[in-house]
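Deliverable D2.4 — example input (structure tokens):
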């Protein structure tokens, strides 16, 4: 994999997303590559990657799923009791997940959001480290929205696309996923909604995530 040598932004074409997901699992949870199972992504993030995972509300509109904090600093979070935004200090290596936002969207189920933030730390921490020196005043965190990437610059959009693409591949690694889907003999969403639902349960992801993964693996 290549990097932009100036910014340390990694170039990861979509054709390499499965490889990155496999490398990630080989490092943190190799058993997932041999046996179809729900990936204990919360444990991986906390115990394997040593990230501090916190569940806090991030916006009034409930449209920010998560954040990864790359350097110590102040971050704006939302206090639903007072209905006010407040600034709080967080240390680097903290991941914030909005528990209400992850309930709102199908693709953005909780595990997928945690895996998404894990990808940001795994692949993008060097970029943010570089930013600390080149643009010291810039925020040292990434903020992941439910919808498109409205306030992002080009680098941030690239990293967001990478995290969106790689997270489900960590939760449903290609080989065991194909094995399971073939065993269920999936033909179509209409005929196999029950099987799709079972696969979603097995990997502890949303049904919509399974459908997308089936299409990516040419199984639908
Ligand atoms: Zn993101």
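Example output (designed residues):
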């Amino acid at each position: 994999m290549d990097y932009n040598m100036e910014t340390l932004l990694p170039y990861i074409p979509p054709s390499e997303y499965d490889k990155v997901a496999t490398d990630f699992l080989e490092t943190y949870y190799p058993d997932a590559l041999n046996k179809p199972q729900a990936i204990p992504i919360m444990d991986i993030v906390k115990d394997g990657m040593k990230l501090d995972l916190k569940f806090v509300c991030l916006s009034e509109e409930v449209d920010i799923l998560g954040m990864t904090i790359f350097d110590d600093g102040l971050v704006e979070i939302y206090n639903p009791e007072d209905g006010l935004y407040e600034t709080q200090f967080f240390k680097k290596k903290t991941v914030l997940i909005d528990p209400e936002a992850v309930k709102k969207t199908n693709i953005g189920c909780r595990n997928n959001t945690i895996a998404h933030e894990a990808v940001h730390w795994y692949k993008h921490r060097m970029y943010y480290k570089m930013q600390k020196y080149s643009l010291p005043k810039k925020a040292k965190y990434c903020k992941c929205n439910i919808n498109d990437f409205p306030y992002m610059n080009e680098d941030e959009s690239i990293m967001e696309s990478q995290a969106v693409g790689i997270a489900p591949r960590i939760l449903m690694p290609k080989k065991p996923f194909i094995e399971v889907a073939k065993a269920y003999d999936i033909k179509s969403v209409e005929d196999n909604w029950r099987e799709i639902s079972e696969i979603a349960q097995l990997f502890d992801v949303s049904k919509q995530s399974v459908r997308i993964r089936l299409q990516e693996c040419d199984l639908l």
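The pocket of zinc ion is lined by residues 116, 120, 142, 144, 160, 163 (CB under 6 Å).
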